[in-house]
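Lab notebook, bench 4. We co-purified these components, and the gel suggests they stay together. Before we commit to crystallization screens, I want a quick structural picture of the whole thing.
Request: model the full complex, all chains together.
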Amino acid sequence: MDKYVELTTETIVDYVNSKTDFFASDAVYECEEIGDGNLNLVFRVKDTKNNTSVIIKQALPYVRVSGGDWPMDINRGAIETAVLELHYELTDGLVPKVYSFDRDMYCVIMEDLYDYTIMRTGLLEYNSYPKFADQITDYLVKTLLLTSDVVMDHKDKKELVKKYINPELCEITEQLVYTEPFRIGGRNDMEDFLVDFQKTELAEDEELSLEVAKLKFDFMNNAQALLHGDVHTGSIFVNQENTRVIDPEFAFYGPMAYDVGALVANLIMNYISTLAWLPEGEKRQNHLDYLLTATKDVVDLFAEKFLKLWDEVVTDEMAKTPGFKEWYLEDVLVNTAGVAGCEMIRRSVGFAHVKDLDSIPDDTLREKALKTNILLAKHLIKNRHEFTTGAAYQKVVKEITLD
Amino acid sequence: MDKYVELTTETIVDYVNSKTDFFASDAVYECEEIGDGNLNLVFRVKDTKNNTSVIIKQALPYVRVSGGDWPMDINRGAIETAVLELHYELTDGLVPKVYSFDRDMYCVIMEDLYDYTIMRTGLLEYNSYPKFADQITDYLVKTLLLTSDVVMDHKDKKELVKKYINPELCEITEQLVYTEPFRIGGRNDMEDFLVDFQKTELAEDEELSLEVAKLKFDFMNNAQALLHGDVHTGSIFVNQENTRVIDPEFAFYGPMAYDVGALVANLIMNYISTLAWLPEGEKRQNHLDYLLTATKDVVDLFAEKFLKLWDEVVTDEMAKTPGFKEWYLEDVLVNTAGVAGCEMIRRSVGFAHVKDLDSIPDDTLREKALKTNILLAKHLIKNRHEFTTGAAYQKVVKEITLD
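Here is the predicted assembly.
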């Protein structure tokens, strides 16, 4: 950490020009700090004359909101960049391009996705993204299957497992997704109207805790594929034509279901949010229809492409056994529903929320939305073996009402 | 590898004295190379005057029988020593004590278990070890549970996972235990009378391959506990009073079932061997009774002690959920039966055999023994969900006949 200095809008231009020759010599610079996350500084540097720009992301050695009291392994910056480079290659560009990474400053300079929108923001403005389900399932199937023992040389895979051991970031997930929401206290953060509900529906439901414990140990032990580790709609840039997945700093070797489930959960939460926010009418119906189709398509296209790619790339001799790929996929899909449930719950009562639910302006509707979200999440966790098709999700999501 | 030299009986005394002050100054030395394995040189140096001795084990950078053509990661020597030291602490001395380890020579100097017998040899002489089941289940429960996420700080556990990534040794198991015996060719090695049998009963049984594929992926992905990785009766020293487990060079973070299952398989194979070797009579009945009880006790004591220790040491908040420890144990026991089956099969038709079966002198009985062994193994793999108690094993083992 000797050479580590936090960058500022004053130092950022010199820094970029010392690391890349991205900008022309006649550049006219405009800089802003655009980070809204907890763990990093994020800058955009733009050359307004030639209309080019880059993003610079620097890992901080502590959690930003804590003012320095909650230290955080800065090596995640190196993990994030290595994963972006690997995913760029595996997915043929479904992640931003990396121009430079600097191990002294834990700082990456990368492609500015200036003509994209953060998907969560876009969905909250009731936009739809017709190519999203197809592109995100390409990303998921390729990043997951191609880093697994099904495909990789097993010794090379083990070296990647080693490289991507990510204890501090995994601990965040283990605590905030798989533990605290199902217990009293900790860093849980919920509205007053949820306090009793969380106690009776979550903390006191031992059957639920048992299922979550199984999912938690799967998360901790099942080194199946190199995950992104945080595929919510705030980690995805979209527009009408393209999809890009950012921020893989939680990456590690874990269960494939964790990535797929997080995404499904965030689509469902936007669905519930839309029900609560928008008055009945065509606009609402269109957005609900879009979300319903997107959820269904994510599950079904993932399954369909997974089986297809498997046949093209499988190398493990035993994995070629008839019936094995279907068994393997089913296990991923079952746990996907479990993960989706955990994600929906932690976004309602845990440390980190989503704008979709929190910003519903009407108190009564917000309470109904949050409770409905939690109850559906419990159903997904407890009955996860039934959720192996898009149709299964479609059925329960369609039945959601806030009446 | 610059400073690496293979030791010989000529150089070994000076080597030991350069690394330890174990021997008295008036020592009278006697040296012998006693290694019979494939991967290491093993020496005993004895001071005949003061009646003290040590064992020196040096990792070779190739597989011994190959004459140098099959290279082997020499770092396993460091893994083995680190595991011995950790296991010594966790089990209160159920492994030999390490006096010195040398990273230049990949050479460990350790306690000589001179008043012990290799268990396989002892069992082949029809000896019984009344304290074995109790002591080996202490070893298994402590080494496995205490290195798991149930107990360890999760970040510390991940550092151990990283430290013990063991690609080359795992690949041996993945190929020789979980792949080749279920396929034609490879390094399989079987007697002529097994060639057709292996083809129809193993290579062509797709239902069996499917179950083995599941077990193989569990072996590769389930980083549950720090395993020994090769707990057969040739890795165990015993006498009437004590048990010591040696040779953990296959150690890595894997499924607990792998260690328990390998042991159970080797007890069953000695049972089948005894049936074939010994004529009916009291001696045979006593040995069969001992093996039957030992097999039953290993499973039942493992389960009993596992649940008891769990309550004493569990730290993970979700792992404390009622019902979780029983679910977790059942999963270990189910896969134990699957592993036992794979081990029994690979010892019959694969690259590495066991003396118990191979040395049955009568051709007809040996053929019957090997085929019986394979069929029982298939039953264990396919019906592994039924094998969660010692009684379940006792029942099928008691029914074995070679008529």
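Residues 282-313 of chain B form the longest helix (32 residues). Worth comparing against the SEC data before the next meeting. The first strand of chain B starts at residue 29 and ends at 33.
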